[in-house]
TrEMBL record, chain A:
<keyword id="KW-1133">Transmembrane helix</keyword>
<feature type="transmembrane region" description="Helical">
    <location>
        <begin position="255"/>
        <end position="288"/>
    </location>
</feature>
<protein>
    <submittedName>
        <fullName>Simple sugar transport system permease protein</fullName>
    </submittedName>
</protein>
<dbReference type="GO" id="GO:0005886">
    <property type="term" value="C:plasma membrane"/>
</dbReference>
<keyword id="KW-0762">Sugar transport</keyword>
<feature type="transmembrane region" description="Helical">
    <location>
        <begin position="166"/>
        <end position="190"/>
    </location>
</feature>
<feature type="transmembrane region" description="Helical">
    <location>
        <begin position="15"/>
        <end position="32"/>
    </location>
</feature>
<feature type="transmembrane region" description="Helical">
    <location>
        <begin position="44"/>
        <end position="67"/>
    </location>
</feature>
<dbReference type="GO" id="GO:0022857">
    <property type="term" value="F:transmembrane transporter activity"/>
</dbReference>
Automatic annotation (TrEMBL), chain B:
<feature type="domain" description="ABC transporter">
    <location>
        <begin position="262"/>
        <end position="508"/>
    </location>
</feature>
<dbReference type="InterPro" id="IPR050107">
    <property type="entry name" value="ABC_carbohydrate_import_ATPase"/>
</dbReference>
<dbReference type="InterPro" id="IPR027417">
    <property type="entry name" value="P-loop_NTPase"/>
</dbReference>
<keyword id="KW-1003">Cell membrane</keyword>
<dbReference type="GO" id="GO:0005886">
    <property type="term" value="C:plasma membrane"/>
</dbReference>
<keyword id="KW-0547">Nucleotide-binding</keyword>
<dbReference type="InterPro" id="IPR003593">
    <property type="entry name" value="AAA+_ATPase"/>
</dbReference>
<dbReference type="GO" id="GO:0016887">
    <property type="term" value="F:ATP hydrolysis activity"/>
</dbReference>
<dbReference type="InterPro" id="IPR003439">
    <property type="entry name" value="ABC_transporter-like_ATP-bd"/>
</dbReference>
Amino acid sequence: MTALTFGRASVPVKYLPVLVTGCLFVAMFVAGGIRYEGFASGQVVLNVFIDNAFLLVVAVGMTFVILTGGIDLSVGSVVALSTMIAASLMEGPGWPPYVVVPLVLLIGSGLGLVMGWIIQSFDIQPFIVTLAGMFLARGLCYTIGTDSIPIRDATFTAFAQTRIDLFADLWVSPSVVIALVVVAVAAYVLHYTRFGRSVYATGGNEQSALLMGLPVARTKITVYTVSGFCSALGGVLLSFYMLSGYGLHAVGMELDAIAAVVIGGTLLTGGTGFLLGTVLGVLVLGLIQTIISFEGTLNSWWTKIFIGLLLFVFILLQRPFSGRVRR
Amino acid sequence: MTEHILRMVGITKTFPGVKALQDVNLSVRRGEIHAICGENGAGKSTLMKVLSGVYPHGTYEGEIVFEGERVEFGSIRDSEHAGIVIIHQELALSPQLSIAENIFLGNERAKRGIIDWNRTNYEAAELMKRVGLRENPTTPIFDIGVGKQQLVEIAKALSKEVKLLILDEPTAALNDDDSAHLLDLLRGLREEGITCVIISHKLNEVTAIADAVTIIRDGRTIETLDMAADDVTEDRIISGMVGRALDNRFPPHESSIGEEVLRIEDWTVHSPSQPGRKVVDGAGLTVRRGEIVGLAGLMGAGRTELAMSVFGRTYGVNISGKIFKDGKPIVIRNVQDAIRHGIAYATEDRKRYGLNLIDDIKRNISAAGLKGLASRGWVNENEEYKVAEGFHRSMNIKAPTVNSVVGKLSGGNQQKVVLSKWILTEPDVLILDEPTRGIDVGAKYEIYTIINRLADQGKAVLVISSELPELLGLCDRIYTLSEGRITGEVAREDATQERLMYLMTKGQEKLS
């Protein structure tokens, strides 16, 4: 049994979690549309993208890491550090954005590279190494400044406030375009490159990957570097969104990213999952927030409650698949 | 004292598709050391698992009578309660805990839930004295060698008031001194009235220590020999272990042998877990183009270790020796080097080391040879699909499509995927470790045909197998390995099971 059949259509089992997440998104959208006036419009969906572009980018990096069977807890802190570095360099010495942004991306990637190297070379659990990275990056924010630093650079703010008009009054921000490009590139890399294959093979069975001559060590270091890069880019996108750098930005974002990846159907043990699932996972999380804000009377903490319940459901949903496939 | 402490009557155990045990009988007299001998896969361990309740009552047919009573064990706990303790080849100790803690694990010396450490360490010291283990009871297990760990296992058994002690290959991982000490200890336990069943491949030890030997072959009891009454020699046991006729289970094949492809000289490998122990000791062999060479050896002889250490140093430390490919010396530092030099190794443990079970056939086949299907890092998916589809047909992999998940295939089809994967890397030398383990008879024939085809294409094939008939039916030449050393090289014409078994069970010093 490698496929489930619904009437005449047949879906391979490995696509099922993604399909369920997709259906959930559609169902939530339809339910919202019935319940709230003005909900069922294209802009609501686009706003979910606009408000979560940074999370989407961070979750893409997280997907790489989780596919190898690892975890990266440092992403939220690296996002905060990136906003902080970007804001302080533009406000203090007044460096132009086209110098600052590449520098920030380089620092984020460097942090990821170092964590990946430690994980691989000393054979230490990713959990503990990235936990250390999380404290380190968050702490470094406060060496730059304890208060929020506003970003007033003309080019930067102009770019951040640009509206890209689509058809019929719909619009997106440049961040959404950047995030979608990241998703497309990442999906392509995961699916069509030898590196992508190594990522899946390492997560599926690291020992067999080693004996097949796959570059397991290089792959593991690379995925943390990718995650570091994505976190830094997420930080840049968050700076566009907030127009400030602050050490308390993106607190707990690592957990949102992990939740999005898991809800998107990627197994925490690695080896199976799709980037499309991660995109849907982020959209579901975003839509929950939207629904709660439409509800009006509900406290925003209800978002957490729904995410918690959803996670429970999805973990249980995945259980039979992972159990059945592994011998 | 001739009363039987244990009688197993008519034991039959069936796994899906395989009859592992068929009408096996075993009678063990009180206070004796009873050896069970048989080839790898003959059913010895299965029989012991039936006895110890690993396979609970109801999953097998037949009857077990222990201490004069019919017993029906539902779990290991039941059998231990009755006084039967089994010590497996892979020791079941917790490495971070102390010797004393391990001895009383699950059986703690406690009062109202609070552990009495004085009593624990004191009683542990007493038990350790009985087994001749001179260590501090608080020493952690990872600090003592395998030989001493074995003694801890026995002390643990003694703490449970054992009446029947079963040891599965107790000396397989031990050096000569530790083995001798262990055998002395078993004699001492016999004096104390404890009955022992040992499973062993080392026939010199069996003849030295056992009072009786039961021989099992192909899941059936062949005979029980009384060492005192009958004049039992090692050769007598060997003929009982292998005495079966070769039938038509192998495709006919005539090899056309060319020049030498791979030569290994003076290859020595040390164990990564026990510093100083040589797992492979000065081994040397050659394989020629179009030739199928066998490597025979009992469990623990170092076959897999030899192969894996050659294949990119994936096993062992402190490896020394020379490898020649087509007459030129080569250096292999890792798996990528090995693949580049045209060497492929199909592992004995497909599920753990050979396949990514949660991925599909196509991607498993392409994994090792992906370089050939990609340009500048980008995989050509159409080409990959075509290649996989080609193997799907040529290897006759029974699966609906190449997108089927590998974990759901049968053993034979999984093995075909593994072979496809390595053939795609276009190797000159294929090392196949237990290529037909866990595969049913029909699929075995197919695998043999594939191996013959590879040889006909001019590849050099080295087959490692525990099944002697398989080596005899398949190989042009067979090396025997015993305790890490090559103890013989036999041409196909001269090879018999008896001769191979003789070479496999002898240390090199006895040969001369």
